[in-house]
Amino acid sequence: MERHEDITIYGNNRIYYSNPEKITIKNKQQEIIKYIEIKNISPFIKMYKEFLFDGGEAGFERNLTSSISLMRVLSQAITNNNSIVEVN
């Protein structure tokens, strides 16, 4: 059994909606400002799949290093800008 959650956040000028397939940002007039489709695999699932089935230890280590590096970059960007960073 899979569990899915839809999240809707109402801001002063925008409405944010998210479910497992997409993120939609609309203005108060319900016009779409931004639409992002979500890929159905997380980097961590990919990392473990490669470790177990494809890349062995080297693939696991590469993906782990990439994930840690990306988290450091995003953390620093958020700290420096004091805002949310959009990643495409």
Give your account of this protein's structure:
This protein has 88 residues and is of the alpha+beta class. The protein folds into two domains: 1-39, no CATH class; 41-88, no CATH class. Helix content is 43%, strand content 25%. The chain has helices at 43-54, 56-81, and strands spanning 7-10, 14-19, 22-27, 32-37. The protein has a four-stranded antiparallel beta sheet, with no helix packed on it.
Strand content: 25-35%
- How do the SSEs run, as a string of H and E? EEEEHH
Helical content (DSSP H or I, runs of 4+): 40-55%
Whole-number tally of structural domains:
2
The dominant shape is elongated
Radius of gyration, in Å, reads 17 Å
Average pLDDT works out at 71
End-to-end span in angstroms? 30 Å
Q: Write out the strand line-up for the largest beta sheet, numbering strands in chain order.
A: 1-2-3-4
Number of helical segments? 2
**Which sheet architecture does the biggest sheet show?**
4 strands, antiparallel
Could you name the ranges where pLDDT drops below 50 across 5 or more consecutive residues?
Answer: none
Number of strands: 4
Given helix and strand content, the structural type is alpha+beta
